[in-house]
């Protein structure tokens, strides 16, 4: 079986053999937003006009943006946590937060970068510890008949958190170092340091098997992509829920302001006679004061 991931500017990919029945093709220089393994939904360029419509809570635009980013959010959440239940909560939370903040997005924003970053942050909070090896999705989705692969993933999970994140995201999502740094909320230099540290540590353990095991990890990562039916259903549900909450909040705010203005108007109407008498009394007193 072969998996190809190639960005718009890619012209080459490097095959890594893992045995007669397990091979993977690692793309070089792939760009984010072009890799939806396991799905035939085409990627799209999110235009400023689409973002402008999404800022107005236009459902079609919101769903298009979520559809574009959902596969990456799903893969990252499941790979970083290794736990289906926690990953599901992260995906729902990130999608709803994305819809919630869309009205505040500025022109020129890249939505997928926002989703990369906030998926990572949510995963850190939801799963601060590694899953049990027998339940780790990166292990169960990989070549389960190879003990060396399971040991490789366990060693990866045992690394410091940011090193683990850098290695999984770089090899799984094919992010370049600049985007990796933005996703991890650190500089490109810091991201490179984390990635190199993870690579050196794992090379020490895997030795000559490192390229094959890394390719196996990338292959396992791609299998965490959601099917089309899941994407469409989840996006429709989360968009509908989040947009309903946005409209409800707007209605509540407007209702509160209308009530406040109505109360002020009633107070002025109800107390205007008393206010006028008080004003007249103050003026009369000022006029009768001796000079």
What do these coordinates show?
The protein has 291 residues and is mainly alpha-helical. It has a domain at 46-246. 67% of the residues lie in helices and 3% in strands. Helix 2 (59-81) crosses helix 11, helix 6 packs antiparallel against helix 9 and helix 7 crosses helix 9. The longest helix is centred in the C-terminal third of the chain and has 61 residues, at 228-288.
Biggest pleated sheet: 2 strands, antiparallel
Low-confidence stretches: 1-43
Find the structural class using helix and strand composition: mainly alpha
Estimate the global geometry from the Cα principal axes: elongated
Strand order of the largest sheet: 1-2
Radius of gyration: 27 Å
- The whole-number mean of residue pLDDT values reads 78
The number of helices is: 11
Number of strands: 2
Query: First CA to last CA: what distance?
Result: 103 Å
Secondary-structure topology with pairs:
Blueprint: E1 13-17, E2 23-27, H1 48-55, H2 59-81, H3 84-101, H4 111-126, H5 137-140, H6 147-158, H7 161-173, H8 177-183, H9 188-206, H10 210-222, H11 228-288
Helix pairs in contact: 1-2, 2-3, 2-4, 2-7, 2-11, 3-4, 3-11, 6-9, 7-9, 7-10, 8-9
């Amino acid at each position: 079986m072969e998996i190809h991931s190639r960005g718009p500017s890619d012209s080459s990919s490097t095959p890594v053999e893992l045995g007669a029945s397990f091979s993977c093709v690692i793309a070089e220089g792939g760009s984010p937003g072009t890799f939806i393994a396991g799905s035939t939904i085409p990627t799209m360029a999110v235009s400023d006009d689409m973002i402008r419509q999404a800022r107005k809570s236009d459902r079609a635009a919101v769903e298009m943006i979520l559809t574009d980013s959902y596969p990456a959010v799903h893969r990252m959440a499941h790979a970083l946590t290794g736990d289906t239940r926690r990953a599901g909560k992260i995906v729902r939370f990130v999608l709803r937060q994305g819809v919630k903040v869309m009205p505040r997005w500025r022109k020129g924003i890249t939505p997928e970068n926002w989703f990369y970053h906030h998926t990572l942050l949510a995963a850190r909070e939801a799963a601060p510890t590694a899953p049990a090896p027998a339940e780790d999705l990166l292990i169960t989705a990989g070549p389960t008949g190879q003990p060396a692969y399971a040991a490789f993933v366990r060693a990866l999970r045992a690394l410091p958190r940011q090193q683990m994140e850098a290695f999984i995201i770089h090899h799984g999502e094919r992010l370049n170092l600049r985007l990796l740094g933005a996703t991890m909320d650190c500089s490109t230099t810091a991201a490179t340091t984390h990635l190199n540290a993870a690579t050196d540590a794992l090379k020490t353990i895997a030795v000559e098997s490192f390229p094959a095991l890394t390719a196996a990890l990338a292959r396992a990562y791609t299998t965490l992509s959601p099917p089309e039916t899941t994407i469409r259903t989840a996006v429709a549900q989360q968009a509908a829920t989040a947009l309903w909450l946005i409209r409800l909040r707007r209605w509540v705010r407007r209702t509160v302001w209308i009530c406040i203005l109505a109360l002020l108007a009633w107070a002025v109407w109800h107390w205007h006679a008393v206010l006028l008498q008080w004003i007249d009394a103050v003026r009369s007193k000022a006029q009768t004061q001796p000079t």
